[in-house]
Every structure is written in C-alpha cells, then in structure tokens.
Amino acid sequence: MRLGSSRRVAFTLIELLVVIAIIAILIGLLLPAVQKIREAANRMKCTNNLKQLGLGLHNYESANQVFPPGYIANNSTFNGVSDTSEASWCYFILPYLEQDSLFNTVDYVAARAANGFGSASTGTLTIRSTRIPMMSCPSDDPNAIMGFGGFCVRGNYNANGGIGPQIMPSTSNGLDQVVQGVFYNVSKTRMADITDGTSNTAFMSEVINPKGDDMRGIRYYPEGPIYQHNNTPNSGVDQVRINYCINDPMAPCTGTYTAWNTRSVIITARSRHTGGVNVLMGDGGVRFAKNSVSLSVWKALATPQAQAGESTDTSF
Q1: Rounded alpha-carbon distances, angstroms, from residue 243 to 57, 149, 224, 238, 240
Q2: Nearest partner of 88 among 105, 111, 54, 65, judged by Cα
Q3: N or C: which end of the chain has fewer CB within 10 A?
C-alpha cells in the first residue's frame, strides 16, 4: 500500500515575513552605502568644476595680466571708461570657459552705458537666464535655478571678496569690503599682488542656492556672486537683501537692507557636502575646508596680502 506524502507546495506566512524582514534589513544596510557613493561622485564633480573655473581664471590672467574684476558697481570707471554695467566675474570669464557664444550675446558698450546687468535690459536677457552646468554643484538642489525675482540665473561657486560686509562703494572705484579679498569692485588683482602666495589664498568656494526667491549665488549682479570670510564654512547667518532671503536649514539668512545703495552683504561659504566646503586656491588646486577650521585661519585665506595680526597658519 502506498502511503500519501505531505509535500509542502508554498511558503508559510511566517516564512514570508522572515524573508521580507531580511530584505528590508539588507536595503537598510545598502542605502547609506549607495548615498555615500553618490555623494563622493558629486563631490568629485564639484571639485572638477572648481578646477575648470580656476583654469578659466588663470587663462584670463594670462591674456590680461590681471584677474577679472569681482564686479562693476554702477558708479564705476573700468579700463578708463565710465561703467555702470554691474557685470560680474561670471561674465568676464566666459570666453575662457569655452562660452564665447554666450559672451557674445551682450553688447558690452551698450551694457556699461545703461546699467545692462542691473536692469531688465533685453540686451542681457539671454545671459541672465542661461544656466551653465559648470557653475553648479550636483549636491545642491537642481531646481533652485533662478533668483532675485526671476531676474537672474544662479550658481554655486562664488569668488572671494574678502571680509565683509560688502557695501555699495561711496565713490567711483571706492572700497566695498572691510578687508579686500582677490575679487571685489573693479578689482584688477595681479599675480604679483598675492604676496601671501597663491597656495595660501582662496579664490572661490561654494554657496548654497536655497529653493525660492533668494539672491545668493546669482551670477550677473554684484550682490550674488561674491562670498565673504566673516564666518567659517556652514556657520553663522548670511546678510542679504530684504525680500530675497529664503531661510534654508543649511543656509540661514536675515534681510539687512532694502536696495542696491544700502547693501550690506555677507554670504558665507556653504555646501551640502558632509562636513565642509570645497575651496579653489589661487594655485588652481582644490582643497576641502572642514567646518571645524579656525576662524583666524579662514580669515587669513581671504587676504592676498598679510594683514596685521593675521594667522600665519593656513593649513586646514
């Protein structure tokens, strides 16, 4: 007589729950690793972007014997000519980033005569609304593109203006920072002016673009493309124009002025990388500045020439 067998043809509920639990644990273990790999790739891309911008700055210097101006205030004289353009380094560097076609959309003679970058001029509309991927960090919000009332495109790499606040110069070619950095109003910094050494002087660092109508990081207007060394990376509260300050948990701000002629700007180096920011040095190298860097060292990196009482230790 053949006995019947009790073959099992399916999983029990308990076994299914155990399998699901194991899969959930594995996913939980894998996700942080995947996120770390993604962030490492983003940080590497960010580093490469800064290196390309550094190459553009040095190519500009080779062609002109000076680095580009940080920006042009609307009461300035630049290259011996009255200039109200309010253009920034982001415009002047374009031909050295293989962006000649974008650069050539602007009639600069007309722009400098009629506040071309500080007004809703159709002559600068194309450049003000065109995003350049090289100027954006992949770790930041890819949707935070326009700012300042939709007036201008934004980016994540700002030039070192020094120690602020950045103010509106009271006279033509007047000073605009408490301590001037490398890039400021109508600056023409020469390589020979950087007596601290290019490897000890910051040229650029990162800023966060908060999602919404914020000014920080706008490319082609004086109040957005410059940063200051008043605060160590990812610390303090930024000072920006009232109505264009969007508080982000990683980029807090307060509105401290209402118009161009009362500006008092402090934009701090910030990023969404873990623990610090990338910094482009004057020698073209990119270093990672940790949030824990001392304020004295951070301020010393801002100045191309040694200041009284300045830290001589620029290691970070």
Answers
A1: 33, 9, 14, 14, 9
A2: 111
A3: N
Six token digits for residue 47: 């580093």
Return the closest-CA partner of residue 76 out of 21, 20, 115: 115
pLDDT on residue 46: 97
3-state DSSP call for residue 146?
A: strand
Provide the whole-model pTM.
0.87
Determine contact, residues 97/132, Cβ cutoff 8 Å.
yes
Structure tokens at 33: 């690793």
Q: How far is CA 52 from CA 55, 57, 97, 204, 274, in A?
A: 5, 9, 8, 12, 22
Burial class (CB in 10 A: 0-12, 13-18, 19+), 51: middle
The label of the residue with tokens 């919404």 reads 212
How far apart are alpha carbons 265 and 214 in whole angstroms?
13
Distance CA 195, CA 303 (A): 9
The full set of domain ranges for the chain reads: 50-302
β-strands 264-265, 166-167: how paired? antiparallel
End-to-end CA distance of the chain: give it in Å, rounded.
85
* pLDDT tens column, 217-256: 999 999 999 999 999 999 999 999 999 999 999 999 999 9
* CA-based nearest residue to 226, from 259, 260, 203, 210: 203
Antiparallel, parallel or unpaired: β 276-281 and 264-265: unpaired
Angle at 265 between CA 158 and CA 205, to 5 degrees: 20
Q: Burial-class residue 25 by CB neighbours within 10 Å (0-12, 13-18, 19+).
A: exposed
